[in-house]
Amino acid sequence: MSKGKKKIPFWFKVVIGFGLITIGLFGFITFEAYQYIYKPNVYIQQKDVAYICIPTGSTIDDVTRLLYEKGLIINRSSFEWLAKKRNYNQRIFPGRYKITNGMSNNRLVEILRTGTQSPVKLVFNPMRGKDRFAGLVGRQLEADSIALLNLLNDPNVAAKYGFSLEAFPSMFVPNTYEFFWNTSTEKFLDRMKREYDIFWTDARKAKAASLGLTPAEVVALASIVEEETVKSSEKPRIAGVYLNRIKKGMLLQADPTVKFAVGDFTLRRILNKHLSADSPYNTYKYAGIPPGPINFPSTSTVNAVLNAEKHSYIYFCAREDFSGYSNFASTLAQHNRNATAYRNALSRKGIFR
């Protein structure tokens, strides 16, 4: 008689079954966790790269909402889950961050929690007006444009950096700079002062001194030259005209300073009513270089003043052919002929203001 098979105890079956369920559940949880961490969760429509700016004072909820509402993350809950696991919610770094298409939560959270910012390229070209300058900065950085403009108009702030309020704009050197998006207005000003000090080398300071000018006066004169012509080749010659007039004790009689004084750079003709404007910037009325620049001149124009052409001209006037070039003169008689030709050309075009 054959022996019967031994029956597997019920408790053993339960243990095996429970073990299989546990292994399956563990595998499922592991798979899901892997998906939450490493599966691509960034989707950028029709682009490979996007940038997100996280404001100062943001919470994890703010960041998650920002990412989701901009359509940059697919699964909102998976990002938030990992962010909290990595303690990102305990310290949010403000700034501008580069996000690439197909990025995982793991990579995205790592960039954010370590504050690995992508700098802003601030392109600062020659321009008119502190308000426009503040607006340019405010559009590209977190810094508030109104707050910056208030600082630019504060004589105590100007004095802190070694300038009069009128000369304060000369501290800002047009160039292309890299800033972190969350740079404060105060740190922005500190950086601009460092860039000013870098630009004004001992060699440039020596050239300014040889002309009998301070760096601030050079910038103020350069701002006039900036307005007078777009022709780079003429800038050193025009600068030479004004330096000659200063040496002779003559009024600069620079039309752009009148436009600045009356607040209208659209004027094509300067009339007697404009010349009577009572402003220290009106060089038809007040001698010497204005107390500050009338715009933010380019570094090339500043260099044109420092390397002004030596000649005998004390007058110049726009050419009547509207080429953008000027006619130069050493005598008033010749200048009057040039000016008459230009005025007649304006009249023929129907330009009376």
From TrEMBL:
Q: What's one GO-annotated cellular component?
A: plasma membrane
What is catalyzed by this enzyme? a peptidoglycan chain = a peptidoglycan chain with N-acetyl-1,6-anhydromuramyl-[peptide] at the reducing end + a peptidoglycan chain with N-acetylglucosamine at the non-reducing end
- The record places the site described as Important for catalytic activity at 228
Task: Name the Gene3D superfamilies on file.
Answer: Classic Zinc Finger, Endolytic murein transglycosylase
Which parts of the chain span the membrane according to its record? 12-31
* Family assignment from sequence similarity: Belongs to the transglycosylase MltG family.
What is the name of the protein in this document? Answer: Endolytic murein transglycosylase
What species is this protein from?
Williamwhitmania taraxaci
